[in-house]
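Q: What would this chain look like folded?
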Amino acid sequence: MKAITKNNTQMPGHTSSFFKLVNNPVAFRLFRLKSLPAALFSGLRLQAISEEKCTVSVPYKWFTKNPFRSTYFACLSMAAEMSTGALVLAHAYKRVPAIATLIVAVDSVYHKKAIGNTFFTCADGVIIKKAIEESVQSKEAKIIKTYAKGVNEKGEVVSEFWFTWSVKERT
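A: My prediction, written as structure tokens:
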């Protein structure tokens, strides 16, 4: 059975329940409070998500700023990771057998000061889904290197992140 999201993308049943959860503002706020409190308090917002890509924003505000009058790099990293992690979770959500996920490496480059809202987009959903499927088939861990690009409100690249994920069947 396929589910249809707001943007009419068809998804397998296990991702549809995840998208239903994250698209419900109250449920997603409770999820962040329980599982990602720093993301909630920092003001991270899930702007858009589909099977293929995810966009997360981080504001420039008192809680996210640094002494140099820009967004603290850790808050940028948190938003970038959420853009990749939401896709990993979407494809691993309620899978049988369950999927264990872990970040094993992070690389980043900073191009400009983040002095306003920054939007991170990861478009690696197809790669993530394929790696999870291969991991289930082979019963071995698979490594996925995901990319998230952060742009400011003018569309200028602020920073880029590469998160290396390990996915495998949970034992």
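The helical segments are 13-22, 25-35, 37-42, 73-92, 125-138.
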